[in-house]
Each structure stands twice: as structure tokens, then as C-alpha cells.
Amino acid sequence: MNSLERLLAAARFEATDRTPFMPQLFGLAARAAGVAIDAYVRGGSLMAECQLRQQERLGNDAVFAFSDLGVETEALGSRLKYYEHQYPEVVDYALAPGDDPARLSLPDPARDGRMPGVLDAIGALRRALGDSVMVAGGVAGPMTLAAQLYGAEKALFLTMDDRPRFEAALDLAVAVAGRYGAAQLAAGAHMVMVLDPMASPAVMPPELFRELLAPRLHRLMADLRAAGSLTTWLNIAGPTAPILPHYAEIGAAIATFDYYVEPATARSLLPHTCLLGNLTSLDFLAPSPQNLTAQARRLIAAFADRGGYILSSGCEIPAEAGEANVAALAQLAAGG
Amino acid sequence: MSATDFETMVGALLAGDHVAALAEARRLKAAGVSAERIVTDGLEVAMGRLDEKCTVEQFNLLEIMLVGRAVSVVVQDLYPEGMPPAGGRASFVIATLEGDVHDLGKNIVKMVLIGKGYRVVDLGRDCPVEVLAEAAERERATAVLVSGLISPIVPQVRRVRAALQARGLGGMPVVAGGAALKQLTAADLNVDYVAETAFDGASYLEALATEDKG
Q: How far is B5 from chain A, CA to nearest CA, in Å?
């Protein structure tokens, strides 16, 4: 069983030869290779090389051609500031508070912003790995992209002040994610994950998630599957227990659960969905992996009787984390 | 005028309806109610109820932002020159430290504290540690508050205590919060308290402010 087969089997609740291991390694691949984040996030062969070398060292079951959550908004006209050691941030949003989202046109992934660089990275990763290791792309989910287009505060106030305009922004975001995701799949990605941190119940009340986001996420997952995604992954961090029950109807085959949610709770809320998590991200900054390996042992044991589990963190592993901590978990997942 | 006369305003505040809350505050003022009473019997009551409702499991930024905006609009109307540090109320200095431009969490904490009648000096985002310490000294702050969404900010947070000590403020409490920082302990961050939510932080600060007065 190779890495791709292992992850797909877990997503389908089939038996696996060992615990699948898909740590959320984005910027850490750059840092470990001594590459500046501002160069890494432009994608291309540099991003692919960092991911490939890291996968060789750690044996993780997936590589990611994902840089940050600013790619789509930049392609739509937002201006970003780049940093040497952290992800870029929007300094000038594409939409002013009074703007109608219809004034923006869908970006062309082959041409706009950093999207072509990400597609190049995907192509390079797929050529190098074939179907042995999962090549994962990623798109910003609708709530997150709406927040990246208006600014988080303004987007959140729109939910109260101008619901039709807010919903138009969400619809635009779904269309962008669908098109960008399809381009990633055409470039060679096996799967496109949907990251929507702003959809977390820490930010949005669960009722609004159910009413406004769940139907749109359902549409996006269906679009990604139709475009060739071998599986689907909804990646939302934070205290997600109130929204997890909706993931099945949304069509997410893989669901992230973060450290806020106990494994038993996640299991009971999503009995037929593959769960991924829930190691605490900032524990990867600790000088020794002791705490992490103890957490990982408990997690593996908690899912031993049902399968449908992928060992990972509940959120991104920080770029400044020690790679030795990830290596210890890789060894554990491999049965070492 | 009894507490029930403030219910309309409290209801509007909790619904996040800043237009209705402002209209009601103006009506009360025109009826002769003092600004101080509108704060204590209106704004603080609303924030207290929101506090009771917002457990760790039920805390969401949107709801708090809407209430916070309504509170801010009323405060701004009552005190166009800024809220006075009346009645010996404590002052807090708050910032998102240099390297972190995410200030949503900081703004929420600020709104909650203003709603509870405290004076808050907001140093914005991307704020150098030295500027924070200088402001803490200048404002005679009861505590300094730092918010952090991203992990690269952790080393900056660990420097706050030393920067305060260098100004003879070694005993000034430091409170941290935000998605990244709350995954670490107070000892990890070299601070006095790590708040799980804005209201959790506000409760800790209220206790400090009470000690300070006593």
C-alpha cells in the first residue's frame, strides 16, 4: 500500500496497513530547507522542491502545493505585503465596504497573481511522485475568501448590515474556489482541500454556518469531485463540535477536528466520515516531541476499532516548529 | 427611573442593533438620565448578559463584534471626547505586537472592556514591544494586554515582561490572548495570564482592577 492508496483507503473507511499520516506542513517545508517564506509562497519549482525533500525525510503521506490564504484575493485585486519569515497579509482589500462583489471578475488561474506558480508546483510534484504520494492542492473556503476581499471585520458586519451583498460575496468565493480548484486538479493534484478558518464557530455562529455556508460548501465539494478530486477534505480549525454534524451532508469525506474537540465527540458526531486531527499545533514548538507522541498514541488508540482516521494536527504546524517533532510522529505512525 | 427603563436599550445592544441602541440612549439622555447611568445600567448590564452567554463553547466573534459596535456607538455619542477615567476606573493598554497585523481579537477585547466601563488605550497592530512598555508607563496602566493570532509572535510576547521591568514596572500584570497564544501556558509566554476568550480575560482584569482599588 503506498501513501496515496493509504489516504484514500482511510477516507473510504477501508483497512490500511498503518495509520495514515498527513501533517499540515506548508511553510515548515520552506523553513526546514532554509528558504524564505516570501520566495516559497510564489510556488513553482522552489515550493515543489521543498515539499519533496521534506517528504523524503519524513515519509508523510501527502505533499501540499499550498502557500497561504492570500492567493485568491490577490488574484482578484487585493494588494498584499510580503514578509521574509511569515505569510503575506492583505494591506489593501479588493472590495471597499460599499462595493458590490459583482464588480470583480473571476480570476484566470493560468494568468492571475500567484495562481500559475501554485499550478507549476503541483505539476512538478505530480511528475516527481506520480501516484505514490498524495499531491494535495488547496483553496480558501467561501467565508475566508469573503473576509479576505472586504477585511474580516467589514465582512462580518455585512452579515447583519447587508445580507444580500454578503451572500453575493460568498457566491463569488465559491465560484473562485471551484475554478481555481479545477485548475489545480487539471495540473495534477489528486485532491483539493478546502480551508475555511473564518467559518469556525469561534468566528461565525453555528446557525449562520448552517444557513449560509453549508449549502455553498456542499456545492463546492460537488464541483471539486466533478473536476476530478479523488476525495474531499473540509479543513476548519477551532471549536467545531457544533458544525461537525453538517460535514456529512456537505459531502466532506475527510473532516478536520482540532484540539478543542475530543476524539470521542468527533466520532459520535461524524460516525461515517474520516476524521483528521487533532494534535495541538503549537505543541510542535516544544523542544521535545514527548507530549506530541503521547497525544498521538492516544489518538491512534481512540480510532483503532473503527478506522477512518488520519493522524495530523488540527491546524497548520507552525513554520517555526522543530522538524524533529514531526519526524517522531512519522515514526510512530509507521509503527516504530 | 428603574432598571426596567433600560431594558429596551439592553435588548437593542444584545441584538447588535446599533441604530436602535443609539436612539434609545439619546431618548434616555433627553429624559434626564446621566451618561454615567446609561453606562452602568445599560451598557454594563448588556455586556454582563453577553458574558454569561459566552462560554468557551458558545463564544463567537460575530455576535460580540455586533454588540461591541453598538456599545461603541453609544459611548462615542455620550462621550465625544473619549470616555473619562471616571470613578477611579482602571486603564488598560492593549496591542497586537510587531509582526502580527491581525487585530480582530484585540478589537473584541477592547470593545468588551469599554462596554464594562474601563478606559482602554489601543496601540493598534504591528506594535513594537518598547512602544507598549512606554505607553504602559505613561498611562499608569493597571495591566498590559497582548493579542496574537499567529505563532511567529510568541518570541515578542516573551519580551514584554523584560521591557516593563526595564521601566521599573516589573509588577505590572501582562495578559495574553488570541488563537495562537492561548495554545501556550502563562509560563511558556512569560505572562501572568492567558485568556481563553475576551470575557475570560475581562474577568481576570476586573479582579485585578478591584484589587488595585482596594
A: 26
Q: Which of B57, B151, B180 sits opposite A239 (nearest CB)?
A: B57
Contact A159 B62 (CB under 8 A): yes
Topology classification of domain B86-213: Rossmann fold (3.40.50)
The CATH class given to the B3-78 domain equals mainly alpha
CATH number at residue A239: 3.20.20.210
Which letter, b or e, does each residue of B104-131 get, where b requires 16 or more Cβ atoms within 10 Å of its Cβ? Answer: bbbbbbbbbbbbbbbbbbbbebebbbeb
Q: Measure the CA–CA gap between A235 and A250, rounded to whole angstroms.
A: 12
Q: Is the dihedral of CA A89, A92, A95, A97 positive or negative?
A: positive
Q: Which domain holds residue A68?
A: 3-333
Cα–Cα distance, A246 to A51 (Å, whole number): 32
B62, B99, B150: residue with CB nearest A205: B62
pLDDT in tens, B114-147: 878 888 999 988 899 999 999 999 999 999 999 8
**A240-285 pLDDT, tens per residue?**
999 999 999 999 999 999 999 999 999 999 999 999 999 999 899 9
ipTM: 0.79
- Tally the domains of chain A: 1
Map out the domains of chain B as residue ranges: 3-78, 86-213
Q: Answer yes or no: pTM beyond 0.90.
A: no
